[in-house]
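Figure caption, in words: inputs first, then the predicted bound structure.
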Amino acid sequence: MPDLYAKKCRCPYCLKDTETKRVLSRHIRTDHTDLDGLIHYQGPNVYFYEPVQCSHCRFIFHESFEKLRPDVRTVLETDILPILPVLPFAETERTLKQALHLYKFCLYIAQVTFQKDSIQAMLGVRISWMYRLLQDTTQEMLWAERTVQKYEKLYLEYTDAVRTGIPHDVLLLRISDLYATLGDTDNAKQWYSLIFQSKTVSDRIKKEAREHWEHYRETHAI
Ligand SMILES: [Zn+2]
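Bound structure (zinc ion present):
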């Protein structure tokens, strides 16, 4: 595994250091980026190595996970950790399918440990992207649909960037882009319009939204 190195991460459950593989930064080569942010790599795929499985306790997590509540720890100890499989590829080079497998476990753990909706939605986007790489459009769309619902819920309950876990204008762009991915013209138009008309959305996000909407109009019969 010449392109990978072992990175130490603190496990949020057992609080021990565990090692996981990451792509060496000098080997990260971007090929192109899809409109909704998915980066395609020439070399090893950085996304494959985001989920971590602790080698001490089996806990599967993402580095964005927050501290676990005491009641959650109890449930993990009695009901979840004993049934989690040890995934040998978690510690080695990973294939696309193995990465997808880890992301699904990671999302499951995010749900049972009550991680923020913004973290769960981010993992949902990653799963949808893994299906895009697998060219499984049905599953990609299914996960995009689930995720946009999660992001819309976040929008309705939005408080601030720290508590909700995502800047307001980025959230608007995510929702718009997901509707564009889904080919849902009415919703995409409505959400992109919210960005164009907003007085608080940053110029950078407005510019990206304009490019995305123009591309959508060029590639769809509307
Ligand atoms: Zn652990």
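The pocket of zinc ion is lined by residues 11, 13-14, 16, 54, 56-57, 59 (CB under 6 Å).
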